[in-house]
Amino acid sequence: MPNSTRPMRLGLLFHAILLTGITANVEANTPPVMLTSPKDFIYPDVDLGLSESLYPNEATTAKEIANIIEMTIRKQYATDIALRDAHPKAHGCVRAEFKINETLPQNMAYGVFIPGKTYQAWIRFSNGSSNAKQADIKKDARGMAIKLLAVPEKNLLDEPAATQDFIMINHPVFFANDPARYLSFMQDINSDRFLKKLHVPFALGAKGTWIALNTRNKISNPLQTRYWSMVPYQLGVGTHRQAVKYSARACSSVVSPIPATPQKDFLRAALRTTLQDRDACMEFLVQPRTSSSMSVEDSMTEWKEDQAPFYKVATIRIPQQVFDTTEQNKFCENLSFTPWHALAEHKPLGAINRMRKVIYDQISRVRHEMNSAKQTNSNNVEDQ
Ligand code: HEM
């Protein structure tokens, strides 16, 4: 395989610097080409009122990071189905209902948070590692990406099928704030030179390295861990707008044990077995910032819950279902989630989120183009 000698991509997982390449083994892809539909992006404006501030050369850095990831994907998946660069291993995409509380405090009732409204949604559960073949028992970050369908307004990307996405990982903070450091980290992990890989902790710094290591964890069921947005979002528009973070957790605190002899994909099996028997329930929470000392640019520092409590705004019902079918898994691969699938009332904030506008768009378009697949936010598996 052409990728067998190239270093594995880390995504969130700096520990993988010690591993070698991966060998994917799926049907052949179209040959790598440059994006046939490059898109000029207007880099997001900063909201000084919510204390956002641009880093030097931020937009250029975002583009450089996107280009590194694009090159990696083109090389890694030259003859295979191209997967996501981060979170390529899905445990499944499940249908869900996202029901907003019947009553909400006035300072929460913005955007999609319309009291009493129920949205149909897709939720994709994933592992963070860029190695889609990694066994679930290995420590990793776990992702939960929610896509609300048929939201009332166009989203910030002005796409025809308006969706509101909430993207979360099961750790409260992200390992980087600073675009230049993130770029240096990407250059290090994508280098073929071992010494460059040893430089990763210097690129991330002590705090970033510590967070990267602590983001890795073991779980027994994707429905039983807690997820956080890590980075902030606006809630509301105009003078009432505020900065918030999101979180989601199971309605019940019961946690199953990790199997004694776990199968490679036991998290998919746990999801399948749970939803075969019964509905699952999760809560969606919003954490308004309570002090301007809680930075919107510093995604490495937690807004402590005892100073800024979370409030439940919605209940997520994941009905009993069969999700693990060939059609639905393919549909899941072709979905695109981005923080910028957001109504203006939920605009992403902070440098990491601003860069994600450029990066997620480019990478999603590259992998869809490589696979000759249609990018979709559609409601229906059958539309594929
Ligand atoms: C500059 C920082 C980041 C970069 C470069 C980055 C990069 C990426 C890329 C390229 C993808 C795949 C997109 C696609 O092909 O559709 C992705 C997916 C994802 N990212 Fe990030 N990411 C960053 C920050 C974050 C943060 C802060 C979170 C925290 C919640 C996060 C959570 C996820 C999740 C859960 C997915 C999978 C979404 C899905 O299921 O499709 N990422 N990321």
Number of H- or I-type helical stretches? 7
Mean pLDDT: 89
Bound molecules: protoporphyrin IX containing FE
CATH topology: Catalase HpII,  Chain A, domain 1
CATH class type: Mainly Beta
The biggest sheet, with number of strands, parallel, antiparallel or mixed sense and barrel status, is: 9 strands, antiparallel
**Helix percent band:** 10-25%
Q: How are the elements arranged and paired?
A:
Blueprint: H1 58-76, E1 89-100, E2 118-127, E3 142-148, E4 164-169, H2 179-189, H3 194-198, H4 200-214, E5 227-228, E6 233-235, E7 242-250, H5 266-277, E8 280-288, E9 311-318, H6 326-334, H7 351-370
Antiparallel strand pairs: 1-2, 1-9, 2-3, 3-4, 5-7, 6-7, 7-8, 8-9
Helix pairs in contact: 1-2, 1-7, 2-4
The chain binds protoporphyrin IX containing FE.
